[in-house]
Amino acid sequence: MGNQPLLQLKNLRTSFRIQDDYFAAVDDVSLTVNENEVVAIVGESGCGKSALALSIMGLHQEGRTKLEGNVNFNGRNLLSLSTGEMNKVRGKDIGMIFQDPLTALNPLMTCGKQIEESMTYHTSFTGGEKKERALELLKSVGIPNPGRTYKQYPHELSGGMRQRVVIAVAIACNPSIVIADEPTTALDVTIQAQIMDLLKELQKKNETGIILITHDLGVVAEMADRVAVMYAGEIVELADVHTLFENPLHPYTRSLLNSIPSTTDEKERLHVIQGVVPSLKNLPRKGCRFKNRIEWMDDHEHEENPVLREVEPDHFVRCTCYKNFHFPEEK
Amino acid sequence: MLKFILRRILIMIPQLIILSVLIFALAKAMPGDALTGQLASSPKMDAQTLHELKQKLGMLDPPYVQYFRWLKGLLHGDMGMSIIHQTPVTQLLAGRMENTILLSAAVLILSYLIAIPLGIVSGRWTDSWADKMVVGYNYITFATPLFIFALLMLFIFGFVLGWFPTSGSVDIRVENGTFSYFMSKVNHLILPAFSGAIISTTVTIQYLRTEIIDTKIKDFVKTARAKGVSESNVYTRHILRNSFLPIAAFLGYDIVSLIGGSVFLESIYGYPGIGQLFITSIAQRDFSVVTALVMISGLATLVGTLLSDIILSAVDPRIRIE
Ligand SMILES: Nc1ncnc2c1ncn2[C@@H]1O[C@H](COP(=O)(O)OP(=O)(O)OP(=O)(O)O)[C@@H](O)[C@H]1O
Ligand code: SF4
Ligand SMILES: [Mg+2]
Predict the structure, then answer these.
(1) Are residues B83 and B108 in the same domain?
(2) Are A172 and A141 in contact (CB under 8 A)?
(3) What is the model's pTM?
């Protein structure tokens, strides 16, 4: 278990073309994922988590998306690779698990063939070897009857089973890093826990680095080593999981933690910031992006343009005046 | 699967019986008959002989007797006599059926040969200049009625340029079975087939284009790319296979509607097929021919629907027919 950096994002900015202008959905994100480390990315809907994941994979629509900054992996900047070169990385070094298992698999291909497909591109396996590996993978993701599922089409499986197949597809070539974009949101609560356990188990066994995108802070507490909290395209707080839960500093993080349903304390539950993430076009690009959601902060207590600052070792916060911040009831 | 097909064929029987009753009733309800039309033109025909002739041909029997006689004949493969042509209907249809099937097949194949590449190009490279040209082409073919287009083609390539024959299905001077007979058939086929094909590309192109545009942003396409599948295989193995589904589903119907649609083509190009025969037979009140043709096209529609279902279940694993 090394602390070798595996994937390094440096000032990554992803902008989408809307009409004739580009708007950044991921803005100046710097983040490192080390070997065998689980980094969680949390944040509300629309804050740019999927956009970030697709940027790393190079899966955004060309011509409508502008990517700036660096995604360093194995000594190369993935953003500078051609599609052909990127195809050698995708599926082999980086695997991706998508949110919705109902739509993530090709309805016209058997599960077995879909798992084997990446081996066709990244290994020199013969047909027999591919099948053997596919069956082994199906078994390792907890499919009860691999031989049968190998021949089945996605529609013949339940959502949970399909997500297991999606996971098998992602890890088929033993990638050193897996990006899981809300892998359980589309599933039943009971199945969610099973899938998370499976991911955790596979991560331990294969020593993969994982970028885990989720809304679910319970999952974060259970799985993650480090956590990046995103708001409106920016990382607003970054810390290891214990620090984040023990000593959250950014008002947004504190609000998120207070919104965990398991919090029984009524008073605590009130400390949730109302409102939603503004749309890309309406995002305030100057000053603190969070400002208009905490109206009870006095203007003079603010500094403009907070940067992500290390407030204690390995704990970064993008808020210059968090010390002055209190929920209304705390005053 | 076999059980399903068998059951569908069994269901066809009552459908065909109902169809036969309807057709027979409609044919009888049509004003006039083949013989009366000849009364005025033929001096040998007076009211007395006409009546005797009708009696002899059974045209004065009660309708249900006539119906069952007709039905019994049908079951024995006997579709009656054409009063106008004075030949059995089956014999009359044989050669024409072959021509129509030949023409329809040519239209279908040509139409797909043109439409599929155009649809793929315009769906894959949306908003490119190639796509814009295909969309423009589609507007034109959509707005142009078949009979006008066919007349125009006939006029330009048949009469003005004289590149192709302007009527018939084969040169009568060549001997059946020789190579030049075959070439003459092809030569007579080109113009009507192209006219029909070009006008019928519209739907296929439109479907394919929309379908590709919808499919290429689907999640499973992202999954395929995330596996490192090469761009060309993302299209062939994932996007196109899914985009072809509705077209495959329509294939069965297409075959049938083309046989019906050949009415215009055959009339304009003087191509001796069943479409042309149908039009002339209606005009001449040649009931046995009309009823036989409607019956055949009814059967073809049922078979086409079944064919479509079978094709769809063969290409789409989500559709299981039991
Ligand atoms: N292709 C695109 N073109 C234009 N805008 C986009 C595109 N993809 C995403 N966006 C916008 O970028 C912002 C971030 O979207 P993203 O999908 O990354 O959010 P998310 O954090 O993954 O949310 P969720 O939790 O709902 O999945 C949103 O405002 C979204 O509307
Ligand atoms: S900088 Fe000010 S407005 Fe922004 S999050 Fe911190 S306290 Fe809130
Ligand atoms: Mg998302």
Answers:
(1) no
(2) no
(3) 0.84
